[in-house]
């Protein structure tokens, strides 16, 4: 089926890339028309608006979605796909035209930043299917949150809470946020349970990876593979501030997982219990989702995208 006979729903986050999405939309719209796409489009007006827009599109029997935005936009669209109840999630295909601060998910799948090149990938119609992570916050009325890239508890969530005001400096925002966070974050007590047993103690952060990059290009888990049906866990134990500073470069080149205070493992599910007296932030794909004890599981081969 070619693009002219398919219907697409394009979701644009006008704030992505410090407003670049909104400015670039006329050019992107023109390119979609040039390549004969039949599409409707909508701009998001608030952070979770993408979820409702996906539900609306599926109700209209539109099963091809295009994300124009960054990792946060993609995260919310994925949550829209995973929480609609009309069709199996695999029947909904997502294309990505990336405009954002980190653009981390696309790095794993080699989706280009160039608008027309990204559109040609969607037009070519080649699909891949990756795993999705599911987070349930215990003793909470909040619904489950799904993630397509990486989730974490602790220091990385604290960094996410700091970077919003620095996003105008691009990917350097993550590095700046890390340095700012060093002086106020306190390690927390955790008990992490997987099929390999329990690991307890003071913790800097726990990372749960599907894809390779996060935080503007950091590589925080050892063997992430979005197609293997497993979560890739990194437990960074009781780092002090000097150790964090000394290991900053290792966060970007992936060798942090070799450090003596880092444990790496693979699992289908993980339970993380936190001391409530010092409960750190939880982030999923760079979006803050709350605090508390969590259960994380894999939803194998749940997400279909153009690549």
Report on the structure:
By secondary structure, the chain is α+β, with helices and mostly antiparallel strands. The protein has helices at 16-34, 49-59, 71-83, 105-109, 115-124, 155-163, 172-181, 241-246, 248-253, and strands spanning 7-12, 38-43, 64-69, 93-98, 127-137, 145-147, 150-154, 188-194, 197-203, 205-209, 231-236, 262-267, 269-274, 282-284, 287-290, 294-306. Strands 1, 2, 3, 4, 5, 6, 8, 9, 13 and 16 form a ten-stranded mixed β-sheet that branches. Strands 12-11-10-7-14-15 form a six-stranded antiparallel β-sheet. 46% of the residues are buried. The mean pLDDT is 92.
Give a quick summary of the entry.
This protein is α+β, with helices and mostly antiparallel strands and 307 residues long. It has nine helices and 16 strands.
């Amino acid at each position: 089926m070619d693009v002219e006979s398919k219907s697409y729903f394009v979701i644009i986050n006008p704030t992505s890339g410090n407003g670049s999405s909104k400015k670039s939309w006329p050019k992107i719209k023109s390119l979609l028309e040039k390549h004969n796409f039949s599409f409707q489009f909508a701009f998001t007006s608030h952070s979770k608006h993408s979820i409702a827009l996906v539900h609306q599109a599926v109700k209209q029997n539109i099963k091809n979605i295009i994300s124009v935005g960054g990792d946060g936009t993609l995260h919310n669209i994925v949550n829209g796909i995973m929480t609609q109840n009309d069709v199996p999630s695999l029947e909904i295909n997502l294309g990505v035209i990336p405009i954002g601060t980190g653009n981390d998910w696309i790095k794993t799948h080699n989706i280009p930043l160039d608008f027309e090149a990204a559109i040609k990938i969607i037009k070519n119609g080649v699909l891949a299917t990756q795993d999705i992570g599911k987070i349930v916050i215990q003793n909470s009325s909040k619904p489950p949150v799904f993630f397509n890239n990486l989730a974490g508890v602790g220091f990385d969530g604290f960094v996410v809470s700091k970077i919003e005001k620095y996003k105008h400096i691009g990917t350097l925002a993550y590095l700046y946020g890390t340095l700012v966070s060093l002086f106020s974050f306190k390690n927390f007590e955790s008990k992490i349970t997987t099929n390999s047993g329990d690991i307890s103690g003071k913790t800097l952060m726990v990372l749960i990876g599907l894809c390779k990059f996060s935080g503007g290009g950091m590589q925080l888990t050892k063997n992430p593979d979005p197609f293997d049906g497993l979560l890739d866990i990194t437990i960074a134990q009781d780092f002090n501030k000097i150790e964090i500073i000394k290991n900053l470069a290792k966060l970007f080149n992936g060798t942090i997982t070799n450090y003596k205070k880092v444990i790496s493992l693979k699992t289908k599910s993980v339970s993380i219990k936190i001391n409530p007296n010092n409960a750190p932030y939880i982030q999923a794909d760079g979006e803050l989702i709350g605090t508390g004890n969590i259960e994380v599981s894999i939803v194998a081969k749940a997400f279909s995208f153009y690549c």
